[in-house]
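User: Sequence recovery, please. Input:
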């Protein structure tokens, strides 16, 4: 029981920080302005981890590896903890499963990225109907535009409704099924 509670707390902490780090990574990759409430929150929350890593880990092709690597490492920590709890019950050592654990952490990071995209698409859809001039509308639109633009070229608007976010969410959920 205590092991499950500890695992839940570790999952909540690593998940929250992973989302924040991935949001920072994607905001920088898609050139989203950090001069807004979300950008300020993400930078303030993750600077303690990203700034020291930037000195050791330079960017690659304009990508902020100092934000991506800790997101992956957090997922690796959780994956190892989960395997340790399960292996403790079944016997064995997580060290023998290291390549598999490394791969599962990659998959978990990709899943978090897709969940982040789905959340941004849902937020954009809600904001477009409820408050299109909200301070959050612009950064969310900038974050989702690279995913929506190719769909919008193929799928026309129906009436005054853009179906691209719905199609993007369905495609993202299909991708999650394969991960």
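Assistant: Recovered sequence (179 residues):
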């Amino acid at each position: 029981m205590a092991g499950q509670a500890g695992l839940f707390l570790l999952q909540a902490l690593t998940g929250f920080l992973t989302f924040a780090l991935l949001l920072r990574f994607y905001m920088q990759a898609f050139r989203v302005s950090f001069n807004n409430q979300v950008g300020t929150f993400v930078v303030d929350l993750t600077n303690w981890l990203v700034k020291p890593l930037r000195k050791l880990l330079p960017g690659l092709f304009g990508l902020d590896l100092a934000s991506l690597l800790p997101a992956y490492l957090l997922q690796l920590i959780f994956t190892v903890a989960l395997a340790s709890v399960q292996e403790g019950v079944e016997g064995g050592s997580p060290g023998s499963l290291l390549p598999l654990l490394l791969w599962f952490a990659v998959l978990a990071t990709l899943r978090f990225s897709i969940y982040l995209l789905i959340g941004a698409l849902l937020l954009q859809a809600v904001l477009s109907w409820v408050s299109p001039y909200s301070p959050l509308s612009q950064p969310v639109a900038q974050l989702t535009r690279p995913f929506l633009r190719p769909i919008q070229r193929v799928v026309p608007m129906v009436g005054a409704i853009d179906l691209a976010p719905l199609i993007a969410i369905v495609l993202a959920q299909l991708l999650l099924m394969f991960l």
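The chain has a mean pLDDT of 89.
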